[in-house]
Amino acid sequence: MSGLVWLVDGVIVFTVIEGLCLVVHHRRTGRGVAPGDFVANMLSGLCLMLALRAALDSGDPWPVLPALLAAGVIHGIDLWRRWRRG
Fold first, then answer.
1. CA 66, CA 33: separation in Å to the nearest integer?
2. Cα–Cα distance between 37 and 56 in angstroms, integer?
3. How far apart are CA 83 and CA 52, in angstroms?
4. How much of the chain exceeds pLDDT 90, in percent?
5. Which of 44, 20, 17, 49 lies closest to 32, judged by CA?
6. pTM of the complete model
7. Distances in Å between the alpha carbon of 44 and those of 28, 31, 73?
8. Cα separation of 60 and 36, whole Å?
9. Closest Cα partner for 73 from 49, 28, 43, 32?
10. pLDDT at residue number 1
11. Total H helices, total E strands in the chain
């Protein structure tokens, strides 16, 4: 595994921990960003990181496509939800 794959893995782990901390903080205190306002955005970003990791690890485009598709769908859902609220 290349050094870049380990770096992407670290960013993925950090992002998951960050998301969990934000959710726990909001549930305990009622303050901060509501999970409904950031989860879709964060999941879309995580899917992009998984696509990058797959591209770096295998070089084969087929494992990358589902992650990119998921990122696009989640991003579209997030935009649609925000558009309706605005």
1. 29
2. 31
3. 28
4. 83
5. 20
6. 0.88
7. 25, 24, 8
8. 34
9. 43
10. 61
11. 3, 0
Tokens of 84: 């309706």
Sign, CA torsion 70/74/79/84: positive
**What does each C-alpha distance from 8 to 1, 31, 64 come to in angstroms?**
11, 30, 14
The CA dihedral of 38, 41, 45, 50, to the nearest 10 degrees, is: 90
* Residues 39, 26 contacting (CB under 8 angstroms): no
Please state the domain extents for the chain.
Answer: 3-85
Identify the burial level of 74 via C-beta atoms within 10 angstroms of its C-beta, where 0-12 means exposed, 13-18 middle and 19 or more buried: buried
Q: What is the pLDDT of residues 33-69, one digit of tens each?
A: 999 999 999 999 999 999 999 999 887 888 899 999 9
